[in-house]
Design a protein that fits this description.
5'-3' DNA exonuclease activity; Pol/histidinol_Pase-like; PHP_domain; alpha+beta; 5'-3' RNA exonuclease activity; four-stranded antiparallel β-sheet; TIM Barrel
Length: about 300
């Protein structure tokens, strides 16, 4: 099944502080190596038609909206043309996805304080991993909270987006999604099931698999191990001197490209890839392990 790269948090000049036209954003998305974008203006769908006019076979435009409230922001993805958002139930009835946006952004409405019920995924990585910019999201805090929830059995898939408002932001970072085809329904299904990982840029390539005998699992899959030891493998390209680490429900367990574990030792495994100095280059959703008869399935 193919993998597609996309940025699901995109603003034009129609949003507060946005400076780019839909045409400029689409051109920049192609230059950044993206296969899809989601238009998510602040509390409006007025640019849906403008973005759709630029979408072609090589670039899917997913219709959405960023819902801005005084208790946090969230993304509604997979809307109908011109559809305005009332709440998560409405989005779900239309087959869409509801994503917690930048849960630890450093401004009054940026901290997410809604109950998580009704939200399908979390934007763990928003914009640059870290910077001195006053609006830069605290991505380390978002990752720590998401990882703690995952370890306690409260997993929602992690995604990453640029939250682009200005030139040269789109695609940093973006989500790499396994989907049956390049369509809104297929891409949202891949995100919903956690068949995705986050890349700093299109230069970063990552292959993360776990094998048990003849059975092989990728990001977001569940691997029935038959009680056997499994081989965990992560291959990274595009990150010089990368620090690759494996993480389980017991915390960080191993560094390097290969590692062995079992379902008795690890309920899941996920990967982080960092540059020297600690800046994130890529991170994945988990592969889940259980000790049943050897097989692989989706979430």
């Amino acid at each position: 099944m193919p993998w597609y790269r996309g940025d699901c948090h995109v603003h034009s000049e129609r949003s507060h502080a946005g400076e780019l036209t839909p045409g400029e954003l689409v051109t920049a998305a192609r230059a950044a190596g993206l296969d899809f974008i989601a238009v998510t203006e602040h509390n409006t769908s007025q640019t849906h038609e403008h973005f759709q006019a630029y979408g072609e076979e090589d670039l899917l435009v997913v219709l959405g909206q960023e819902v801005v409230t005084d208790r946090g922001h969230w993304l509604a993805l997979g809307l109908g043309l011109g559809e305005e958002v009332d709440g998560p139930d409405q989005v779900h009835r239309g087959g869409g996805l509801c994503v917690v946006a930048h849960p630890f952004a450093p401004y009054p409405s940026g901290t997410f304080r809604h109950a998580l019920d009704g939200f399908d995924a979390v934007e763990v990585w928003n914009g640059r991993w870290s910077s001195d910019l006053p609006w830069n999201a605290d991505n380390e805090a978002a990752l720590a909270r998401w990882a703690a929830d995952l370890a306690h059995g409260r997993w929602r898939p992690a995604i990453g987006n640029s939250d682009v408002h200005l030139k040269d932001q789109i695609g940093t970072p973006h989500s790499v999604v396994r989907a049956e085809q390049l369509s809104t329904d297929a891409v949202l299904a891949g995100l919903r099931e956690g068949h995705c990982w986050i890349a700093e840029s299109a230069a970063v390539e990552l292959s993360f698999t776990i094998t048990a005998g003849d059975c092989r699992a990728e990001v977001g899959d569940r691997l029935e191990t038959g009680g056997r030891t499994v081989l965990v493998s992560a291959e990274v390209r595009g990150v010089p001197d990368a620090e690759v680490t494996f993480h389980t429900d017991r915390g960080r367990t191993s560094g390097g490209a290969r590692w062995s574990t079992s379902a008795a030792e690890s309920a899941f495994v996920r990967v982080e890839v960092r540059h020297p100095g600690g800046r994130m280059a890529a991170l994945t959703n988990p592969i889940f392990l259980s000790a049943g008869s050897s097989s692989t399935s989706g979430r």
